[in-house]
Amino acid sequence: xxxxxxxxxxxxxxxxxxxxxxxxxxxxxxxxxxxxxxxxxxxxxxxxxxxxxxxxxxxxxxxxxxxx
Length: 68
Fold this sequence. Notes:
It is a single chain. This protein has 68 residues and is mainly α. It contains two helices and two strands.
């Protein structure tokens, strides 16, 4: 099962890349899902997908606190 549904179209891919690049400089925050407060690696992908209007299954299979 794909977490993002159908494959992105060419236009959606370009918009997704632009949305992700717009977050350059956003603070890193463990389990962050808010570009204002901070995002982590999964949060960057989730926020960029939401920015282009595509639903995405969020990743929640990692600890609340970073390892050590």
